[in-house]
Amino acid sequence: MDTLLQFVNLVLHIDKFLGVFIQQYGAWVYAVLFLIVFCETGLVVLPFLPGDSLLFIGGAFCASGEMNLGLLIVLLLVAAVGGNTLNYLIGKAIGPKVFNSHIPVLERFLDRAALQKTHNFYEKHGGKTIVLARFIPVVRTFAPFVAGASQMTLSRFQLFNFVGALFWVLLLVLLGYFFGNIPFIRQYLNVIVLVGIGAAVVPVVLGALWKMLRKPAAAKSGPGSR
Q1: Cβ–Cβ contacts within 10 Å for residue 64, how many?
Q2: What is the pLDDT of residues 171-184, one digit of tens each?
Q3: I need a surface site. Which of 21, 81, 134, 209 has the fewest CB within 10 A?
Q4: What percent of the chain has pLDDT over 70?
């Protein structure tokens, strides 16, 4: 519980953490930001890392002269593209094997037809999904894994992987660069971070709940119903 509270406190005051880190360790902050973004996008077990706020705060520190804007953008772009690529490759290597394992316990939960449908979806609409997922916490961590598991072609994935990463990094870093040091925004940054996360996550959750609620209703009003 204490660890969770410490993590929440870190997310809400990430600007203070980075400020202290820069004062103590200087250029090592680039390595830390690179590693956090790479792990958040590359490892499905770490979707909770604060990627969005880090990009914004990094841009703010560039505006104050404590970090180099060009170097930060290049490093974060490499981290974002590389992390997604790793996640995709893990999904491509593990996904089909899990679905074809014929393990009795897994047979109850895995739907091979659903995997094929997912593959078809990613071939048709996966590009938009990969790009838009960049801006939705948690979803951006799982999207490349699912793309790999559904066997989306690598060339198609990499095209939208790069486009999504470019938009994500440039938008958030430059927003931080131009607006991150405005006193009002700096003072209420924790609130802004929470509102931003909520604005991205809530519609996704509501959409998922709506689909779950519609399925029983559709089943009741099917051809056999009266």
Answers
A1: 12
A2: 999 988 888 777 77
A3: 209
A4: 58
Give tens-digit pLDDT for 60-115. 888 888 889 999 999 999 999 999 999 999 888 887 666 565 555 444 444 555 55
Q: Which residues, at least 6 apart from 51, have a Cβ–Cβ distance to it below 8 Å?
A: 36, 37, 40, 41, 137, 140
Cβ neighbours for 131, distance < 8 A, ≥ 6 positions apart: 160, 163, 164, 167
- The residue extents of the domains of the chain are 2-220
Two tokens, residue 17: 């953490």
